[in-house]
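Q: Joint fold for the lines below.
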Amino acid sequence: MSGKKLKFLIGGVVVLAAIGSLAFFAVRENMVYYYTVTELQGKGASTNVRVSGDLVNGTLVKGNVGEPIKFKIYDPADKNKVMFVTYTGAVPDTFKDDPNNQVQVVVEGDYLTDGTFNADFLLAKCPSKYEKAQADAAAESTAGQ
Amino acid sequence: MNQIGYTALLLVVAISAYGVVAPLVGVRTGRREFIRSGERAAYALAAVVVVASACLLYMLVTRDFSNEYVASYTSLELGWAYTVSAFWAGNSGSMLLWVVILGVFQAIAVRQNRHKNRELIPYVISILMSIALFFSLLMTLLPEANPFKTIPAGSVPANGMGLNPMLENPGMVIHPVTLYLGYVGFSIPFAFAMAALITKRLGDFWIRSTRRWTLFAWLFLTIGNIVGAWWAYVTLGWGGYWAWDPVENASFLPWLTGTAFLHSVMIQEKKDMLKVWNMVLIILTFMLTIFGTFLTRSGIIQSVHSFGASQLGEFFILFMGLTLVFSLTLLFNRLDLLKSRNELDSFVSRESTFLLNNLILVGMAFTVILGVLFPIFSEAVTGNKVTVGPPFFNTVMVPIGLLLLFVTGVCPLIAWRRATYSNLRKNLIYPVATAAVAFVVLFVLGVRGFYPLLSFTLSAFVLATVALEFGRGTWVRHRMQQENVAKALVGLTWRNKRRYGGYIVHVGVVLLLVGVTGSSAFKVKADQVLTKGESMKVGGYELTYDSFNSYDTSEKSVGQVVFTLKKDGQFLGTVTPVKEYYFNKDQPWTRVDRNTTLSRDVYVSLLEYSTDTGEAKVEAFINPLISWLWIGGIVMVIGGIVALWPDRRDQRRLAARYERQARLHEV
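A: Joint structure:
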């Protein structure tokens, strides 16, 4: 390899290494562990973590205007593992209790020693009502055969 | 109608399967009629998939609820524009959109090349047909991807499910289409690149033939990304426009590598260098367009945007894997044919700045991929799922973005091959002086943050270099052609649309970054619970809760709070954020309101309200300079259109070169 080519190769490697190190540093500084309810309860109190679970139907309590909302989530893999969550931020419009459906929730915040989760970030998604109705209809039709 | 549509899809499968094979047979056996047949198949495919799309469109407009897709995404009350846009509101419709765009683009490409690139065309068709085959097979074989699935009557409400109200926004009507035009647009240069590798015709003719496609695709990706950001800003109500959400990143990734490709092909055309790199870039860009389409369907990444988990993900991974193996093997095989005759001469040369531009853009792309896939990597490697959010992306993207901004400014000032010190000094003096003045002015005005100062100073630097380029060129033309300055400026730009269109795009990028810097570094947020008559302060402004109204329409129940906006006691206007409740969706929707000027947005969102107590929880933002983001976007698009505009001289030159090279058998 000529000297010139080597110079450029080194230059390129230096630039990429600089970007790479920046990325590495940024990951280290900003990574947020993502747990299931079971895993987090096993781990114990932690700050700045994410946990995902399904909303326990009927537990969503919205206080007065401006108060935090409270609800319980459970691990879809183990219905006995339940966690109590308080959320103090803006509630996304998509987040609501739906007795006919599983409401998937992802919250980020602190898991406290008393077993409650204090969330400052909430992400919720719900399968469309239509999918559930369709599944029911299909189940009914096969059951009838 | 469902039957016709589905049959049309089956025909698409058949024609694309034929189209994969026929041109290859033609090449193998030397029987040109098979190749011609392949070309006709391209036209046929376009016609049939347009018919299939017309069927879906017809069913949408007539609200034919026997079709599951129509029932899921429209309702009897939906306006016609949104009814049409429901075509791409869901998974299977958007896949059909992909195929219809691909079909039409393929037909155009075949027609464009009916007198040239004869050796490449059979392979181009074969490759494009393979892509069409993949998508159409998925739509016909997987029920969840079938846009023509029927459902028994009565399984949906009589007036349909209705479109997700978040999508009832003009931006959402065009955003998916523009993105898909961009995604699919890149398949054309990809197909040509692969054809060039296969046929070993590795001069830059394949690049020149697809240059407009690349620009076109880039332009629409740009539009798609910016419209998406605008939609997020005005509809989602969280006060921002970009959350580094996996799906946002999915459409940003091909834009990054596509921009890199757009620049590096200029080097190949001018200096016959970076041939292997260009191949890698177009393969990467194409893969990322498929990856972007896949990410919204796979369910592997948690996001508010994703369509949801489905089997589709596995097929997409398979397709991407096969494509990657195929293209990389081919590239590796032809590696020695891609050696260039020239070398990079010096670190301080225009070629080097282009290379640095590319390294930075690709570095950004890899950072974004890392951030998006980190949960999957970490879980695979350590067993723990770890996510990284906006702070990660910002920490990396801001510094390297600013470096890219610097390079953007410096590049036009540096000579090709090797810049001399005196040459550099002469070119840099005005832009650097402008930047210095800007720095001092900003400092005096009280701007002290490192990144904002750097960002604005570099922005001034880049604007100055562009002004210098336009200025010098205009002055020369003015003197030589005796035209007045205005005419000279337009003449200059029109004479070299690619170059000056490109500079206009750079100006747009700078304005966009000014908007980004202002609205990120100087954003002010406040939230408060108010009752009628109370006020809240946010960033020097005062919002007073004036009154509360509510009313019902056939679709929804609406609650709105009227705020009076004042600054230093001066009345500036009213802001009326709204909360809507759609009856058949059983869910509230927030519609924000803004007071917009060039210097800032006052953005108000109604989070909650109580009709009993009259209390309202309000979140208000001051987003300085954010209008420049949208203005910058528009300027970028204008620049792209200028660069894309047909150029008689260019076309004649290209045709002449083709003649020459055809004679030398180099095409």
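Q: Anything notable?
A: The first helix of chain B runs from residue 2 to 29. Residues 524-624 of chain B form one domain.
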